[in-house]
Specification:
GO terms for molecular function: magnesium ion binding; phosphoglucomutase activity. By secondary structure, the protein is an alpha/beta fold. Helix content is 34%, strand content 23%. Strand 14 (306-310) and strand 15 form a beta hairpin. Helix 2 (36-47) crosses helix 3 (68-81), helix 7 crosses helix 13 and helix 10 packs across helix 13 (402-416).
Length: 582
């Protein structure tokens, strides 16, 4: 039993320690400043009620990015000093964000203990390394991100903090080996348990999906599979799930060794950054040497996002959640008794709306931020939800879940092919095209302008709000650009009143809604660590079966031209092209 003491360390506030819905994200060089991480952690303890700290069990882990190992030791020592009873750490400090949510909700310690919250160390899909990004966020006892009331309190405490508590003489814990280390401090025992990162999450997945049917699909010589973890934390789960449990070939795994710098890549699962997977799936600029696999998928740094691909075929995230919802009851045992409801973020295409209407399901349109889905799920109103930013999930946890989405798609493929494994396979493309034939197609694209001057970005958004006061002027501009584009019938800033707690979220995105169901949406994103990111969403709904097979860029070209001219994008930002097109 190792003894430790508690020290009170004087400190001063930092500017800009305001966590958003995704936590606090900054460059590593900011986090390694003396007291910077300590201030945020102490402010978090101060913002929580006493019973969620003193005597509590906390999870401390993340995606393994650079500075995570040091941060885990600091948070562990501060937890001990603040009266936390035990800390749970995933082996090697690795837990995906969805796995953290699962551990909070499902894991029971040997002594009967349950976690009441977690510090998750991730900057999600942002790059890692000494010159790149780090992040931290706090999740609550429901497994979901801290609500705005808590994040606002954390920020308030960071502006006034004068000291933090730390058990500076507590030895560093070996996080490479599973087991329990016992300590004793002024207030009694303090334990640190390092546990297997994957076992709790795999147990949960096996309770949701029919692994045997997926295994049968993967064993078919006609079905080929590829999964790219982009050197993120999904690699800690990929072999156990896809190879050991489901029987996939180990050669089907790409970049599944977690690395502090994600192998020098950008761990964002889209057509721009998942280059190796995109090329292997036949969607690169040149034809691959080998025949592409039937199914491919990728994860981001903390494994809460996903990209789904078929052979030479991209599935938009908006279509993906709609297709999962449309097939969930038949294909996924967890949903066999029916869906409680479905929800999407406002910028996500309306493909899910059409499914909800067709199946007579409750439907919700919420602001961007997973906490809004969490409220609906906690109230029993939502089973499946998704965001256009490659986030898909269900009420099994309170975070989006990239591997869950991949298993959902494999389940749908297994269901569609259960009597056809000897015949021609029903492919990813077949499933999507059949969905369009049934529900119509939502042509959709997103333009991201990253690291734009923050002042210029705000000026552009203010201009778009002001322009909304005169729809006649808007339509005059549009007609001058493209006379073949429908008129705008309504324009606003999206506002959401939460049906569960009554809270109101304003200024959630600028919308231009057209008479034919098309939409243009402009948002500022807070997920980057410097500058601003402007996101432009362009959507057109097509019900005519003879027109659902067009190339997306061709179908959307008129609206894209209108959006860029209407917003004066190049004039405000100096950018002649977006950083990323999805």
């Amino acid at each position: 039993m190792v003894l430790f003491n508690v020290s009170r360390v004087d400190t001063t506030p930092f500017d800009g320690q305001k966590p958003g819905t995704s936590g606090l994200r900054k460059k590593v060089k900011v986090f390694v400043q003396p007291h910077y991480l300590h201030n945020f952690v102490q402010a978090s303890f101060n913002a929580l009620t006493e019973e969620k700290v003193r005597g509590a069990t906390l999870v401390v882990s993340g995606d393994g990015r650079y500075f995570s190992k040091e941060a885990i030791q600091i948070i562990t020592k501060m937890s001990a000093a603040n009266g936390v009873r035990r800390v749970w750490i995933g082996q090697n400090g690795l837990l995906s964000t969805p796995a953290v949510s699962a551990v909070i909700r499902e894991r029971v310690g040997a002594d009967g203990s349950k976690a009441t919250g977690a510090f998750i160390l991730t900057a999600s899909h942002n790059p890692g390394g000494p010159d790149e990004d780090f992040g931290i966020k706090y999740n609550m006892e429901n497994g979901g991100p801290a609500p705005e009331g808590i994040t606002n309190k954390i920020y308030e405490f960071t502006t006034t903090i004068k000291e933090y508590l730390i058990a500076a003489d507590l030895p560093d814990v070996d996080i490479t080996t599973t087991g329990v280390t016992n300590f004793t401090g002024p207030e009694g025992p303090f334990d640190v348990e390092v546990f297997d990162s994957a076992s709790d999450y795999i147990k949960l997945m096996k309770s949701i999906f029919d692994f045997e049917s997926i295994k049968k699909l993967l064993s078919s010589p006609k079905f080929t599979f590829c999964y790219d973890a982009l050197h993120g934390v999904a690699g800690a789960y990929a072999k156990s799930i896809f190879v050991d449990e489901l029987g996939a070939q180990e050669s089907s795994l790409l970049n599944c060794t977690p690395k502090e710098d994600f192998g020098g890549g950008h761990p964002d699962p889209n057509l721009t950054y998942a280059k190796e997977l995109v090329a292997r799936m036949g969607l690169g600029k040149s034809e691959p040497q080998d025949e592409p696999p039937e199914f491919g998928a990728a994860a981001d740094g903390d494994a809460d996002r996903n990209m789904v691909l078929g052979k030479r075929f991209f599935v938009t995230p908006s279509d993906s959640v709609a297709i999962i919802a449309a097939n969930a009851v038949d294909a996924i045992p967890y949903f066999s008794t029916g869906l409680k409801g479905v929800a999407r973020s406002m910028p996500t295409s309306a493909a899910l709306d059409v499914v909800a209407k067709h199946l007579n399901l409750k439907f919700f349109e919420v602001p961007t931020g997973w906490k809004f889905f969490g409220n609906l799920m906690d109230a029993g109103l939502c089973s499946v939800c998704g965001e256009e930013s490659f986030g898909t999930g269900s009420d099994h946890i309170r975070e989006k879940d990239g591997i869950w989405a991949v298993l959902a798609w494999l389940s749908i493929l297994a269901y569609k092919n259960k009597d056809k494994l000897e015949d021609k396979l029903v492919t990813v493309e077949d499933i999507v095209r059949q969905h369009w034939a049934t529900y119509g197609r939502h042509y959709y694209t997103r333009y991201d302008y990253e690291n734009v001057d923050a002042g210029a970005a705000k000026e552009l958004m203010a201009y778009l709000v002001k322009l909304q006061s005169s729809l006649s002027e808007v339509n005059e501009i549009i007609n001058g650009v493209r006379s073949d584009v429908s008129k705008v019938s309504n324009a606003d800033e999206f506002e959401y009143k939460d049906p569960v707690d009554g809270s109101v979220s304003s200024h959630q995105g600028i919308r231009y809604l057209f008479e034919d169901g098309s939409r243009l949406i402009f948002r500022l994103s807070g997920t980057g660590s410097e500058g601003a990111t402007i996101r432009l969403y362009i959507e057109q709904y097509e019900k005519d079966p003879s027109k659902i097979g067009r190339l997306s860029n061709e179908a959307l070209a008129p609206l894209v031209e209108v959006a860029l001219k209407l917003s004066k994008m190049e004039e405000f930002t100096g950018r002649s092209a977006p950083t990323v097109i999805t």
